């Protein structure tokens, strides 16, 4: 379901407030959404599902034969298969920690070539969101 115009405006305001409050977090979140390695790999998902199904079979076999260790191995295989399937496509460790960002000083408050930070609005992010919520409640239903 698409967002209404009012919801889109509120979302944009929240994004701007987040960027003003913590620009490093906002840029990290934005780059992780747009990044090349954020999807699931079909091969990885298929292997994970097959592993989970084999694990389920071992659990059933372990219960039927009353060999607890076979069931435990099957359960472990199920969990690992599910985790393997749910793991996103590979990003390097350095990139995930922010080491390979273009033009990035990597540290706090560096004078990088990013967009200029506007003066901080009054109140914290949560206080501003509470104020907006109170305004909406006072206005009544749409």
Structural class: mainly alpha
Count of strand segments: 0
What gap, in angstroms, lies between the N and C termini?
18 Å
Helix percentage range: 55-70%
Largest sheet data: none
Shape summary: elongated
How large a portion of the residues is in β-strands, by DSSP E?
A: under 5%
What does this structure look like?
- The chain is an all-alpha fold.
- Among the domains are: 1-28; 41-86.
- Helices cover 64% and strands 0% of the residues.
- The chain has six helices and no strands.
- It has helices at 5-21, 23-34, 42-65, 68-86, 93-96, 125-139.
- The chain is elongated.
- The chain starts with a helix and ends with a helix.
Map the helices and strands.
Layout: H1 5-21, H2 23-34, H3 42-65, H4 68-86, H5 93-96, H6 125-139
Helix pairs in contact: 1-2, 3-4
Which keywords apply here?
single chain, 142 residues, mainly alpha, elongated
Brief description of this entry?
By secondary structure, this protein is mainly alpha-helical.
